[in-house]
TrEMBL record:
<protein>
    <submittedName>
        <fullName>MBL fold metallo-hydrolase</fullName>
    </submittedName>
</protein>
Length: 246
């Protein structure tokens, strides 16, 4: 029986690196200042040497909001010429290069042995489902059930319908690892999108995100939404390593 592994680093907010057997994936890189003087994944940033861990490096940005897209990522090709960028179509770029792969929602792209599917967001941009080295990885970007207290009932219903419609599409696919927002600004409703996602999509590993420096939100979510079939990660600090074995 084959064993499939991933080594995940929490970088900040929605930013993660995922190292698989043959690839390094980086999602929604934002904060580029390290925890201390050393620039590496263990200190919450992508350093020059990290980009040389694998020949195959894929860098994803789900949309152009500044907390999901830092233009510094475009400079990383200096350290690894094999980098491929997978970028949402709403991102404004200074120019377009052959290693920039621009995607809209409901598209599929194959880069070597990696298959990437996109889904629509309930904000802007896309979500990514990545099939790589025997693993299926979902990164939600800003896709969530955004239940704001001050919204009108009409707005809340529209959001709920849009969210559940896209969840039905995502649930048609198997997901090993899911990165999903648990935004503390939603107050009492911070958990509703993630909980619904877990119950319908049933990922093996659920990693909370989109809480800036408020890591305690992940523990609050884990304590509230406990499921036997899904491991929920508590994020404690930048650079934290999460190991996944399938």
């Amino acid at each position: 029986m084959n064993e499939y592994r991933a080594k995940i680093h929490y970088l900040y907010h929605d930013g993660f690196s995922v190292e698989t057997k043959n690839h390094l994936l980086i999602f929604d890189y934002y904060k580029d200042s390290p925890v201390n003087e050393v620039r590496n994944l263990n200190n919450g940033v992508v350093g020059e040497e990290d980009l040389k861990i694998k020949d195959n490096v894929l860098v994803f940005s789900s949309h152009g909001h500044r907390d999901h897209f830092n233009p510094v990522i475009l400079d990383w090709i200096k350290y690894n010429p094999n980098i491929n960028y997978v970028l949402s179509s709403d991102i404004n770029l200074p120019d377009y290069k052959k290693n920039y792969n621009i995607l809209w929602s409901n598209k599929e792209l194959q880069l070597g042995d990696v298959v990437i599917k996109t889904f629509d967001s309930t904000d802007i941009g896309v979500c990514y489902l990545v099939e790589v080295d025997g693993l299926s990885i979902f990164h939600a970007g800003d896709f969530n059930w955004w239940y704001w207290k001050d919204d009108t009932m009409e707005d809340k219903l529209e959001m709920e319908l849009a969210f559940k419609k896209e969840i039905r599409k995502i649930a048609e696919h198997y997901v090993d690892i899911a990165f999903f927002p648990t935004d503390p600004r939603l107050d009492d409703f911070f958990h509703v999108g993630g909980e619904y996602f877990i119950d319908k999509v049933k990922p093996k590993l659920f990693i909370p995100m989109h809480f800036w420096a408020k890591c305690s939100t992940s523990k609050k979510f884990k304590d509230k939404v406990e499921r036997d079939f899904c491991e929920i990660v508590e994020i404690k600090n930048r650079g934290q390593v999460i190991d996944f074995v399938k």
